Amino acid sequence: MFTHRSASKVNANISSTAKAHIIRGAYVLLLSFGIFLIFFSPHSSGNISKDGPPCTDDTWTPTSTTNAPDGRMLPTAVWTGSEMIVWGGTTDRINGLNTGGRYNPSTDSWTATTTTNAPTGRSIHTAVWTGSEMIVWGGEAFDGSFQYLDTGGRYNPGTDSWIATSTSNAPSAREVHTAVWTGSEMIVWGGGTLGSPFNTGGRYNPNTDSWTATSTTNAPSAPVLSHGSVDRQPNDRLGRNS
Fold first, then answer.
1. Residues of the chain whose pLDDT is less than 50?
2. Where are the chain's structural domains?
3. pTM metric for this prediction
4. How many Å apart are CA 205 and CA 220, to the nearest integer?
5. Chain-centre distance for alpha carbon 117
6. Residue 43 in 3-state DSSP?
7. Total Cβ atoms within 10 A of residue 182
């Protein structure tokens, strides 16, 4: 993994002060206050392009590998304001991981996320940062056969602890969906299962641990499974059954 200072624009006009993540193949890219962090595995594919003016420093710094999470593809990552939290993904395109790590660029150090009460290992899931917790939801797991998930968890880095998200009234199990944080709720929408895209979703309120379905009235038609809220590439489906 590397840090790069002061990117002005990356891909879809995301400014350097944005707090966003982009999944391209096995890359996870986070932008925060002039520094972007890239976490990737040896199996990564795709390119990360810059279409704005030159970076002011245009320098790269390798990140420490001491205590770093195992190499993986298709994890998620969120920026907390001081740390990047990487979680989940897969090492072999089949078995999902329920491990992760918190990277502090100020100290160039990693701290493992606990697996106690962590969600089932998975990939092709989503993660959002609420301001105090990372919420992961959905995705795909393997237990003798591929399973789509309607489960998730809330990770608190301050206490290094997980709390499961309710499944009552949760959206149907899916992968390749999108998720955004509104300031009070996580909205999940779209995605689907193999060959069955959805135009349904749900709003999750972590304060009440409750779900409310999103209306399908006038909703967009069910998208192809490679739709995304930021910049999802067609090969994000791991290349299986594509």
1. 4-27, 31-36, 40-53, 229-242
2. 72-237
3. 0.76
4. 23
5. 19
6. coil
7. 11
Tokens 């990047």 belong to which residue? Answer: 84
d(CA 134, CA 102): 11
What single letter denotes the amino acid at residue 119? P
Question: What fold, for 72-237?
Answer: Neuraminidase (2.120.10)
Q: Are 76 and 126 in contact (CB under 8 A)?
A: yes
CA distance 167 to 171: 8
What's residue 38's pLDDT? 53
What span, in angstroms and rounded, lies between the C-alpha atoms of 28 and 26? 7
Q: What is the pLDDT of residues 54-72, one digit of tens each?
A: 556 788 999 999 999 999 9
DSSP secondary structure letter of residue 46: S
- Give the pLDDT confidence score for residue 93 in this predicted structure: 84
As to burial, measured by CB atoms within 10 angstroms (0-12 exposed, 13-18 middle, 19+ buried), residue 86 is buried
Tell the burial category of 34 from Cβ atoms under 10 Å away from its Cβ (0-12, 13-18, 19+): middle
Give the bridge partners for 216, in sequence order.
none
| Helix (H), strand (E), coil (C) string for 61-109 | EECCCCCCCCCCECCEEEECCCCEEEECCECCCCCEECCEEEEECCCCE
Report the 10 Å Cβ neighbour count for 191: 31
